[in-house]
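lol ok so funny story. i was supposed to be doing the assay writeup but got distracted and ended up predicting the structure for this chain instead. priorities right. anyway since i did it might as well share w the group, maybe its usefull for someone
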Amino acid sequence: MQHYTTLFFDSVKAILVSMPETDRAKTAVAMSAMKEGNFQVVETKLLRTPIRELKVKKYRFVFFIHGQLIYFLHAFIKQSLKTPKREIDYAEILYKRVIES
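and the output, tada:
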């Protein structure tokens, strides 16, 4: 099984710090499983290739994988059934910046 390193953008760190302890613990378990390459136990959704979102309760963590790195680009609280287009567009801009640098 492949192992990954995780990198967190500041907006993700801010959401993690502000979450209730129980939600933070669930998120930590999910992200730890991803680091170990165990994607079968987490709920993710493809937003726009290669950008995905990790779902943990009402929280969404937008990420992509590049090589051995999982980049957590953005996080937000889900308030509708569909992921807002602006969230996907923003993630795509960040993805392009990371890949081009």
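The chain has three helices and five strands. The helical segments are 10-18, 21-35, 85-100.
back to the writeup now i swear
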